[in-house]
Structure formats: structure tokens, C-alpha cells
Amino acid sequence: MGALLVTLDHPHVTVSDEDRARFEALVAGHLDGLYSSALRLTRNRTAAEDLVQDTFLKAWRSFRTFQAGTNARAWLYKILMNAYIDGYRRSSRLPEEVDQEDIGDFYLYAKAQESEEYRKAGDPEEILLSQVMDADVKDALEQVPEPFRAAVILADLEEFSYKEIAEILGIPVGTVMSRLYRGRRHLQRLLWDYARRAGYARDEIGLRSQVPP
Amino acid sequence: MSEVDCNVVLERLWVFLDGEADEALYRELEAHIEACLHCRNHVDFERRLRAVIQVKCKGEQAPLALRAALDRLLSGSQ
User: Rounded CA gap, A112 and A1, in Å?
Assistant: First the structure.
């Protein structure tokens, strides 16, 4: 890690203390958010740490070109996303785009409403939401294939606008919308399975605890 | 005025929830959603689901090593 830092120094450019303080304030404030996103993207703590470090090294290198008053958070996420996509290319682990078959709409809400079992148990939406609370939502999100997962992370976790996401990912707004649509549909399908599994697990524990010793 | 029914709400659900509908569309969708129990419940469910996803997937703390690396970068580049 230390060796990497040295190569990034610019011997011909002097950095003012003011620059350094501005940069530190900017990055330190977004470090947890960047790390959360990196973790959901890479699905691995070491890789996430490397990705965030790579991000702030690159951000520092181009900080002089960064205009004060522009969207600093979007700028940082753009660097993060570029580094992430570059990493994919380098290791030739190209994101799979295998979502071609038309699986139609999928809404968890509709599934809960249609389920006889949930209806019988009372309030279907409440039951399903509490099962989602029990489920491994992180794991479900991490199973959403790329490039849909990145769009979902930027919209649903980081709450960027379509325009910001388009800028961050370097794609048109229409593509942002279709990736989001497909990513969310994937996520809801996965959550349906995960939530039901969590629900069954809880029910079994409940049943067992009712059995007298 | 276009005809906003439950199908239109479903088609525009994400644009509505993401706050990306233009004002005219937003108002039409909102008017239908307020009047339609089914759509209102669906919209409410999606909002709550998103909140659950956020609670469960955000809030990771950057490891100390990462903060230390940032400090090193800034103190090292004189």
C-alpha cells in the first residue's frame, strides 16, 4: 500500500495545506458511504477496501481539476464506479448481462397480495415486510447481476437522481431507468425467496419452542 | 388530462417514487394514488421496502485501515 502512495506523488506540483484540508474534509465525510457501496459492489471486504483506497488516490490526483461548488459526492462516486469497472475489465471478469429472457413484471407487493397463505395469516404486506427484515437483504442485493446492481445501489442506497447516475456511470438517462427497472425486479424476486426462507426458519424455531422438553 | 389508471401508475411507479416525474405527471399520478386504495397500498409498500433495504444494506463503517491510508496519503504528499 505504501509503495502505491509514492507513485502517486506529483513532484512538480506543490500542494497547499488548504487543498489538503479541503480534500480531507470532502473524502472523510463520504468514506463510510463509499465503503458501503464498494462492499455491495465487490461483495468482499478486502476488495472493497482496495477499491475505496484506489478511489481516493485517483480523486486526490485529479483534485486540482475538481471545481469547488460542483457535486462533490457525485464526483467521488464517478471515480469509484470507474475504478470498479476498470477492475472488472483488467481481470476480464466482465459483468454478465444475461437478463435477456422476458420474465415480466415482478412486484413483491403483488406476490404478498396473491398469496393465500399470507392472506390467511392476516395482513400480507406486514408479514412480508417483517420477513424481509429477518432476511439477508445484503446478500440478496449482492446477487443482483451487473450492470443492474450498480444502478440500484446508486439510486436506492445512495439516493442519487437519474441525471446524477447517468453522469456517474457515463450512460444515458434512459439506460439508467431500464437498468434500475431490471435491477429492482431482480432484487424483489430474490427478496421473495430470501424472505420466505427467513419466514420458514422463524416458524420452525417457533414450532420447536412450543414442543415440551 | 390523460387517463391515469392503475396500469399507468404501475408503469410509472419508479419514476413517481424516485421523484423523477415532471410536475404535470406527478400531480396526475398523485391524484389517482390518493383516490385508489390498491395503488396507495402498493406505493406505501414500496416506500417501506426501500427503507428496509437501506437500513439493512447501508451503514457500513469504513475500516480504520482505510482512514489511516487517507491520512498517510495526505501527510505524505508534500
Answer: 49
